[in-house]
Amino acid sequence: MTAVRERPASGEALRAVLAVRERPARPNAVRASLTFGWRAMLRIKHVPEQLFDVTAFPVMLTLVFTYLLGGALAGSPREYLQFLLPGILVQTVVMITMYTGVALNVDIAKGVFDRIRTLPVWRPSALVGALLGDAVRYTLASVVVVTLGLVLGFRPAGGVVGVALGVLLLLVFSFALSWIWTMLGLVMRTQNAVMGASMLVLFPLTFGSNIFVDPSTMPGWLESVVRLNPITHLVTAVRGLMAGDVTVGQVGWVLVASAVLVAVFGPVTMRLYATRR
Q1: What is the pLDDT of residues 219-268, one digit of tens each?
Q2: b (16+ CB within 10 A) / e for 28-67
Q3: How far is residue 130's CA from residue 139's CA, in Å, rounded to a whole number?
């Protein structure tokens, strides 16, 4: 009696048996980026303490500097607030951009980074999505600062439109600036190192600017340094939008600087992301 030799099942036959439904289409770049952005937001659900830097921190800064310096610099806290609030808004959002690099470094340490790189999605989507998720945090911090300012007596001459455009310009610059900290998150070994290096850059940039006082009141050499500070240009543009007296050149400078940051640090970051072992 001869045995009947069965033919091996074809690939299509196996897929027909194993697949319960059709294989989903590969996500495009936008969809993949938005998915990773949503992942960044879900971290807040599981670790709500992450909201401290976008809620309590800006409230504390606004209250302390308004009532601590307002009387001495402008005669009253209310008068000083008209000058200070756009600057405090910039400082608050710019300072929390460093957490983009910190979060990426944590993913690397936990091994999540390697798993994400194996997914069949657009390669930059993980980084772009993380930056988009952080943009939501920047927006929340901006809402907190502006709302508190209105309660304390801030009255922008530019109205709602001026405030909205000022916040939008700040978000554009912060998104571009975040690429620097993302790069640091890829090259540094620990999250503490990322945070330390970021603070080493951000602290002199924010405090050595026109956030708290007019540069014209400073010594000549210091005024020149402050006016070269990119944060000074950003504060001037945001302050001008909220006051209703901004110039095209002020906004244009910030947009060009943002484009340069992305053009320089974006490719470098992606190169490090693709080649990291």
Answers
A1: 889 999 999 999 999 999 999 999 999 999 999 999 999 999 999 998 89
A2: eeeebbbebbeebeeebeeeeebeebbeebbeebbeebbe
A3: 14
Q: What ranges in the chain are assigned the alpha helix state H?
A: 11-18, 29-46, 56-74, 77-96, 99-110, 112-117, 125-152, 159-187, 191-207, 220-228, 230-243, 248-275
d(CA 265, CA 182): 9
CB 270, CB 189: distance < 8 Å: no
Contact (Cβ atoms closer than 8 angstroms) between residue 73 and residue 84: no
Closest CA to 244 of 160, 153, 173: 160
Whole-number Cα distances in Å, 33 to 24, 81, 90: 17, 38, 26
3-state secondary structure 194-213: HHHHHHHHHHHHHHCCCCCC
**The model scores a pTM over 0.90:** no
